[in-house]
Amino acid sequence: MAKIMIVEDNPANMELATDLLEPLGYVILPAETAEEGIRLATHELPDLILMDVALPGMDGLSATQRLKGDPRTQGIPIVALTAHAMSGDEARALAAGCAGYITKPIDTRSFPATVAGFL
């Protein structure tokens, strides 16, 4: 089954995403910071990365650019997962290399199908 890395510093958001995806058979790789996510992605090579944009330290879009610049991880689709739903935010995420954009709070009805669409 597919490995999905979730980079999220909010424990409640991490738990919700995990609870929605694990029962479907996905292997969840959690990371709390962008730096941890970069290290984990390089070693585990997940099939998909859900990347929070607002992270402590390095932000998610900077981490996305780093991963897209690394030959080992450049082919992994990265989806921005963010509460920042202001005009232009989605365009910035796509410009940074994200394959898509999911807003928080997570819509529990559509989230699993949306994630499956990126795999």
3D structure, described in words:
This protein has 119 residues and is of the alpha/beta class. The chain has 5 helices and 5 strands; from the N terminus they run βαβαβαβαβα. The longest helix is centred in the first third of the chain and has 11 residues, at 11-21. The N and C termini lie close together (11 Å).
Structure in a nutshell:
With 119 residues, the chain is an alpha/beta fold.
- Which range does the strand content fall in? 15-25%
Major sheet summary line? 5 strands, parallel
Overall mean pLDDT: 95
Order of helices and strands: EHEHEHEHEH
Q: Structural class of the secondary structure composition? A: alpha/beta
| Main sheet strand line-up | 2-1-3-4-5
What topology does this entry show?
Layout: E1 3-7, H1 11-21, E2 27-31, H2 34-44, E3 48-52, H3 60-68, E4 78-82, H4 89-95, E5 100-103, H5 111-118
Parallel strand pairs: 1-2, 1-3, 3-4, 4-5
Helix pairs in contact: 2-3
